[in-house]
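Batch job 17 of 40 flagged for manual review because the log was empty.
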Amino acid sequence: MSFEDQAFLILVAVTYGVWLLVRRRESAAVALLFGASVIFYGLNHWRLLPVILIYCLLNWCVGVGIERLRKKGWILALGVAFNLVVLSFFKYTPLIVSTLAGWSNVWLWPAERLASPAWSIPYGISFYAFTGIAYMVDVYRREYPAERSLVRYSLSAIFFPHLVAGPILRANEFLASLSQGKMPTRGEAHLEAGWLLARGYFKKMVLANRIGTLIDPYFAHVADPTTAGVWSLPYVYLYALQIYLDFSAYTDIARGLGMLFGYRWPDNFNWPYLASNVAAFWRSWHITLSRFLRDYLYIPLGGSRLGPWRTCLNLMITMLLGGLWHGASWSFLLWGGLHGAFLVVHRLWSETGLAAWLASRRGVIGGVWQAFAVLLTFHCVCLAWCFFRLTLLSDSLLCVQKWVVFDSATFLSPALLDPSLGLLLAAYVLVSLFVAGLDHWAKTEELGFTAGCRWGMRGAMLVLAALLSPGGAAAPFIYFQF
């Protein structure tokens, strides 16, 4: 079930309406939200529902066991191993079997079966597995007490707004609000929630989906004669924009829904394409995953405490595993390896005297260097996106080659010259600036009619999202596949 589906909108409306009636009775509110989350996940994937429920049960048992028993290490190891083994089984078995079959040139029965639709990867398994690992480790580190209620813990893991694609929440960011006596009985910042929902649906339904209809045919046929001589760089730029709009739209909608029920969660994005180096990019892109990799993988490996070369190795291991987390394809491993290499180069560069001198410049020199650094970082990220978007290595390499090798007569597709996308992007930027200014003015001016204007802009944005959507079948969010 996607956020754009009519069934989802009905589920949210019914759940919210009932929640308003029972919100002051904690047990009823917990049961309602838990039941709605089970329906959300199981409606189209009921055969995989036991997987997520078993995850909840085992992670809860491990958390309680860590707090109560003396030998905590082996209990934590058991819980982490379970999460990773089940995750690896569902996500990577097809890749491993197909790779072995290709190397051995021998027919393997499972390879054909695993390539069929009968093999299903549970939606969101990467996200709720990482959420469970973070919870168990935090209990082990005594940063958060184990939750005594199985239902409340399970609700924190499978609450439908953040279930499929995050953000990856820590216990003190959500589970703490579900503790007995602490559950909210009113929504949080309704105007902010309304704007998050409005802009999220607009970014997804109007901008990201429209970009998808424009660039998907090219990437699907990048190695075909039909795209011979076509310049690939504009399509890579558009894909970079699409994946940002698509994923940030999911985060906006998830956070907006959370606020309606009284829960405030961290943002996942902070202008990542304006980062001046790849390290800054990862502090601004998929922030909750970046901090998970930092706190639960990079730092336990030794972080930067064991010397420069061990630091570089830890960075590379972290990004390789982070790349493989995204999906069962060697191209994702290569994508992570590229980012690991970028981080290593940045680390070594930042320790040079020239880097320190350039960073300290002001005026024209400082501005030129900053602009160059942002452009360089953006193109490094775009280079890696080629391997993220195209799962075949040959297609990815050909796409990179077409950055610089193209036919001057056919290098631009007529579809790229359509001004409608540019107009929609400009309209979105202008409306966003106007809403930001109106919200800022409303904080300084005690005028009653401004509330109506603010709600009106949010309502208009939602209406435009529905009217300007390119139509056809709803495109799933890109990160739903992870």
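Reviewer: the log was empty due to a logging misconfiguration, but the result itself is present. The chain has a mean pLDDT of 88. Unflagging and moving on to job 18.
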